[in-house]
Design brief:
single chain; alpha+beta; 3-stranded antiparallel beta sheet; 8 strands; 32% helix; 28% strand
C-alpha cells in the first residue's frame, strides 16, 4: 500500500430504475493499524456521502443495491483512483453485478469495510473480507 492511501466511501444504490454509485474520498494523514478500521476519517466520509445521497432523495425513491453491503469504505493506493476505480464503477453501473464488483474491488484494495449503524449505537465498520 502507498505511503498515504486514499480512503473512499461508496454507496451502491438504485434510483428511478437506474443504478448510481456516488462516492466521497480523502487522503489519509495517519493510517489505522493492521486489523483496525480508520474510525475518525471513515465516519466523516460516511456522513459526507450519506448527506449527498439524502439530497438525491429529492429526485425520487432511493434503495440499497447490495443490501447490507451497499455502503462501503475502501482503502486504495493513490494510483488506483484515476484508472481502476472508474473502470470498476462503470462496470457495476452497466451490469449491476455486485459479486463481480466485489471481486474487482478486492483486486485493487487490500482493506475494505461495510458501514452500518444500529439504533443507539455508533457507526460500525466491519471488514468486508
Amino acid at each position: 500500500m502507498a505511503d498515504s492511501p486514499y480512503l473512499v466511501a461508496l454507496a451502491l444504490m438504485e434510483q428511478g430504475g437506474g443504478r448510481a454509485l456516488p462516492l466521497a474520498g480523502r487522503s489519509q494523514k495517519q493510517l489505522a493499524g493492521e486489523g483496525n478500521a480508520p474510525q475518525e476519517l471513515g465516519h466523516a466520509l460516511a456522513l459526507e456521502l450519506l448527506l449527498r445521497v439524502w439530497q438525491r432523495s429529492d429526485d425520487g425513491v432511493l434503495s440499497r443495491a447490495a443490501g447490507t453491503e451497499s455502503l462501503l469504505l475502501v482503502e486504495l493506493a493513490m494510483e488506483r483512483l484515476p484508472e481502476d476505480l472508474p473502470v470498476l464503477k462503470a462496470a457495476w453501473l452497466t451490469s449491476g453485478d455486485f459479486a463481480a464488483f466485489k471481486v474487482g474491488l478486492r483486486s485493487i484494495s487490500e482493506r475494505a469495510w461495510t458501514i452500518s449503524v444500529a439504533k443507539f449505537q455508533p457507526i460500525s465498520l466491519m471488514p468486508l473480507w
